[in-house]
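quick one, 298 residues, struct below
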Amino acid sequence: MSDMIKRVGIVAKSGLVAAAPHLLEIAAWLKRRGVEPVFETATAALAGAGAEWTAVPKDGLAESVDLILVLAGDGTLLGMADRIAQAGRDVPILGVNFGGLGFLTEITLPELYPSLASALEGTATIDERLMLRSSVRRGNEVLIDRVLLNDVVITRGPLSRIIDLSVSVGHHFVARFTSDGLIIATPTGSTAYNLSAGGPIVHPAVDALVLTPIAPHILTNRPVVFPASEEVRVQPLARDGGDEMYVTFDGQVGLRLQPDDVVTICRAEHRVRLIRASTRTYFEVLRRKLGWAERIHG
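---
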């Protein structure tokens, strides 16, 4: 057993009834191995955990444990990854899929205990994934500063027309994009909204970012892959009619933008550590999750 893991945080998606029967079993399994389980507060309520079990609010969990077990879909894991980064911690995450596609929560329920045992023994396969730091500046004021795993998305409001965004990468002007919005994604985030918008899949080992326009007015505006060492600057431009524009970070938090606000995106110093199933390659995950056609026998 690894001497580094003494406390394991347990997080389930809010209201995920399917996970409820497993939560106390996992906690008891950890206790038998001399590891203290620490429930996230809402997860403790879902499990029906009594006062004998430790519970910590979600925002404080990263600072209280050495490993976080997530039973949910990718959205819940993203939220925990962002909290770990914001806390400046280096806590690995083990994601068990209770959601849909689950590119990040790729471990299946039957693989839960073998994967958890490997983590405790120090033999688990761990991927370190690139993260982003993004901020929004209005004049001399920084409105928000976030660290995130998947993507920064700038979109128009529900009743707005197409919007104009001026984009620079490094010291070079790229283009003025007239579109429904723009996605700046990490390789991990390339299989999220970026993929739905027609962007490329980027292997997580590639040190690059992807810039993908959403429904561009000019059809030759295509996704661009560029080095992760470059900083991206996006500036919303005013149009007649005062169209609404919003920026969101990993789909977790966001705010409404004004013309001439500046959104900056760069590679974060922090990397998230994801425990993955050692029996599957990245391409096997893609085939299974995306349903890529294979030869049919018969």
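Residues 20-32 form the longest helix (13 residues).
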